[in-house]
Amino acid sequence: MNQALALNGLSVAFGGFKAIKNVSLSVASGELRVLLGANGAGKTTLMDLISGKIRSTDGSVRVFGHDITNWPEHRIARAGIGRKFQIPSVFRDLTVEQNIQVACCNKHPSVFANLRFGVSAEQRRRIAEILDLTGLVAVARKTAAFLSHGQTQWLELGMLMAQDPKVILLDEPTAGMTHAETSKTADIINRLKGRHTLLVVEHDMGFVREIAQHITVLHLGEVLAEGSVAEIETDARVRAAYLGSKGIS
Ligand SMILES: Nc1ncnc2c1ncn2[C@@H]1O[C@H](COP(=O)(O)OP(=O)(O)OP(=O)(O)O)[C@@H](O)[C@H]1O
C-alpha cells in the first residue's frame, strides 16, 4: 500500500490531561478517510497535531514516508499538508476565478502581482478543472463577497486544491450548510477521491454515508474502531461510546 499519511503512537498532553493517546492510523494515497467521534473525542486536536498547529508529546507523523513530526506549521504546509478550516479565508473583492488563480499561481509575494503577471496555458487548464470540480463554473466571474455560504466553502476548497497538497485535512466541511449544499459538497468530495488523499472530520452521519470509504472512530483520545460505514454503524463499542452524546444517527 502507498501510505500517504501515517500516524504512529501519536500522543499529546495538555498539562496532565492526555487529549490524544497513542493514536496510530494509516491513510492510503487517494483514500478518503472520515474521522468520527463524539464531542471532545480529540478530532480537532488530532488535526492540529498533523498540521503542526500544536506539538505532540510522543509518536510520529509521516507524509509519503517523510517524517514531519513537530515541524513548524509553515514547513508542514510546504511538505504538502493542506488544511481547510470552517472559517473561509477567500479574497472577498476578487472574483471566484481570480481567487483560484491567486492560490494556484502564487509565485509573487503580492496578490495583485500574481494577477497582473497572468497564467500559463497549463495553469489556465488547471484553474478550469478546479472550477469544474468544485461546481463553480457558472459563478467564475462573480465577486467572492456575493457568494452563498456553500459557494464560499467550495471556493476555499478549490483554493486549497489549487495548491496541490499531498494530503487535504477538512474540518467539518458541511458545518452551517443547508441540506442541498451538504449534498453538493458530498458530490464534490466524491469527485476528489482517487485524485487527492483526504482526512475529513464530520458529525453528519447522512453526509458520512455518502462520502466515506473507511472510518476511524476516536473516543476519549484513542482509536476505538476502524472500518466501513456498515461496520462502524453496527459496532457495539461505537454505539456505546456515542450514548450520552447525541448518538449515531
Ligand atoms: N489547548 C487545550 N488545553 C487543554 N485541553 C484541551 C486543549 N485543546 C483541547 N483540549 C481538550 O482535549 C479534548 C479533545 O478536544 P477536541 O477539541 O480535539 O475534541 P473534538 O473531538 O474535536 O470535539 P468537537 O467535536 O466538540 O470539536 C477535550 O477534552 C478538550 O477539552
Automatic annotation (TrEMBL):
Superkingdom field: Bacteria
Gene3D superfamilies from the UniProt entry: P-loop containing nucleotide triphosphate hydrolases
InterPro entries: AAA+_ATPase, ABC_AA/LPS_Transport, ABC_transporter-like_ATP-bd, ABC_transptr_urea_ATP-bd_UrtD, BCA_ABC_TP_C, P-loop_NTPase
Name assigned to this protein: Urea ABC transporter ATP-binding protein UrtD
Organism: Shinella sumterensis
SMART domains linked to this entry: AAA
Keyword annotations from UniProtKB, A to Z: ATP-binding, Nucleotide-binding, Plasmid, Transport
Entry keyword annotation includes Nucleotide-binding: yes
GO cellular component entries: plasma membrane
SUPFAM superfamilies cross-referenced by the UniProt entry: P-loop containing nucleoside triphosphate hydrolases
One example GO MF annotation: ATP binding
Transmembrane segments: none
